[in-house]
From TrEMBL:
Keyword terms, alphabetized: Cell membrane, Membrane, Transmembrane, Transmembrane helix, Transport
A Pfam match: BPD_transp_1
Protein name (Swiss-Prot/TrEMBL): Amino acid ABC transporter permease
Record organism: Paenibacillus medicaginis
Membrane topology of this protein: Multi-pass membrane protein
Length: 262
């Protein structure tokens, strides 16, 4: 039996797919939180040149950045329980969703650590030395000088990471997690309207990505407000300069002496 394309199914499937949106967003949120914690811990040894630990950080980053996320999902789901059994820890009864969040979090941590390291190193060292010169402590110099600028530098790359993770959550279906893509696959199999199902799925991903992109763009602009010149004050100062130059270049009236009176 053949099933022709029917646009009405696209709109019928959207509410059904939205039932699993919470699982997808949970994977993204959990992965980002775990990734931020892991990324910070991995970035610190490389920033402060801690012996031995910085080499472990490099190994961690190389492994997770060089291994596809799908392979990591299989390694953690099937391999981690077997490794922990060697030290008498049984995690075989944990929900599959836990393994997915852990995998996505550690995978994101590798990229976030590089993002943190690059953002901190991008801040001019002379500003930190100036902060020490005026009596600031190391903590004050970091929180007041380095951190605001590093956050503004890191947010654009972090935004790309969040959007990429949102799309990578579709791989969680390979372990049986019923998120958006898993639900779409099930609907397509039941109705045999695969094109309509995946069009609905694409629209949902597009809308979520646009919303997240807008939120992250607002956060980026807020963090970078101190790095942009004040347009209002710039125009006012330009006006004052133009007025002063106009006065200086104006021809003296009859009976008046030229030049600037000191």
């Amino acid at each position: 039996m053949e099933y022709g394309f029917d646009i009405t199914y696209v709109f019928k499937f959207i509410p059904k797919l939205l039932d699993t949106l919470g699982i997808t967003l949970l994977i993204v949120a959990g992965g980002i939180v775990l990734g931020l914690a892991a990324g910070l811990l991995v970035a610190l040894p490389r920033l402060y040149k801690v012996p031995f630990l910085q080499h472990l950080s490099v190994l961690y980053v190389s492994f997770f950045r060089g291994t596809p996320i799908l392979i990591l999902l299989f390694l953690f789901y099937y391999g981690l329980p077997e490794v922990l059994k060697l030290i008498s820890i049984d995690i075989t009864k944990l929900p599959v969703l836990w393994f997915v969040v852990i995998t996505f979090g550690l995978h994101a941590g590798a990229y976030i650590s590089e993002n943190i390291r690059a953002a901190v190193l991008a801040v001019n060292r002379g500003q930190v030395e100036a902060a020490y010169a005026v009596g600031m402590t190391g903590y004050q110099a970091f929180t007041r000088i380095v951190l605001p600028q590093a956050l503004a530098i890191a947010v654009p790359v972090f935004s790309n990471l969040v959007l990429a993770m949102l799309k990578d959550t579709s791989l969680a279906f390979t372990l049986g997690v019923m998120e958006l893509t898993g639900k779409a696959q099930t609907l397509g199999s039941l109705t045999q309207h695969f094109i309509e199902t995946y069009l609905s799925l694409a629209l949902i991903y597009l809308v979520i990505s646009m919303v997240l992109e807008r939120i992250l763009l607002l956060a980026e602009r807020k963090l970078q407000r101190h790095m942009r010149p004040d347009e209002g004050s710039g125009s006012r100062s330009a006006g004052r300069r133009g007025l002063s130059l106009g006065r200086l270049s104006a021809k003296p009236r009859p009976g008046q002496e030229g030049g600037v009176r000191l």
